[in-house]
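Subject: sequence -> structure tokens, single chain

Hey, anyone have a minute? Need the predicted structure for the following. Not urgent.
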Amino acid sequence: MMNPAREGFPGCTKMNCTVGANRLARIAALLALPLGVAGCPPARSPTEVKPPVPRQVTSDPAKLQARSQELQAQARRLSEIAHQLPGRSDQQHRQLMAQTFAQLTQLLPLLGGPEQSGSFQRARHVIEASRTQLGQATQLSPDPTIDTGLRAAYRAVAELAQDDYFQQAKLPAAVDHLKAKLDELDSVRGSGHQWVASEVVRLVSGIVTRMADVLSGFVEQAEEPATAPAPSTPKQQSPDSAPAPAAQ
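Reply:
Had a minute. Here:
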């Protein structure tokens, strides 16, 4: 995952950054994933070989703004799902949790940027696998699958929260609260488990919303003109306005 302090991102806490010509390009690199990106690539046959497609990074303010708005829209959608939990029945709870994991597979790549660590990618894949399992018809309890997906979500957001890029969001306390609530899943069953899982989702939603707000704020800063005010020049007096000589 990128180290924004090393790369000179705007708003970084390890150096005083100025608005430069490369600001939009750097934010574009973080938001370089296409809109509506899926959590996992489609499966390919072993014999299928395709040349890599170069990532197109744009510094167009309009496109950056569109991606920023998409990120915030995805965060709002996760919040909407979180506030519907735990649902009115076991089946609805299962469906809402599957939607939660589906939404996280959309959000996390946008928050993580194009350079993601191996542990971050593994967490995303576990979340996607949990979503898939919850969508299958089975008589088995969904609790273990939900726990696995939520723990993967915690690992992903905890890793993102350590990134210097999100330091201004002041997330450590929120992440600690999430971890404490997540540990409660081991001691509850049935409807109690559903309520605790719902609280975990709401905490995750709150953290990623704050991250999305940070990125959107940087995009807005980058769109501001970087021109300095022109230096003022002393006003020159015209000959007609010169003071008259003192009388002798």
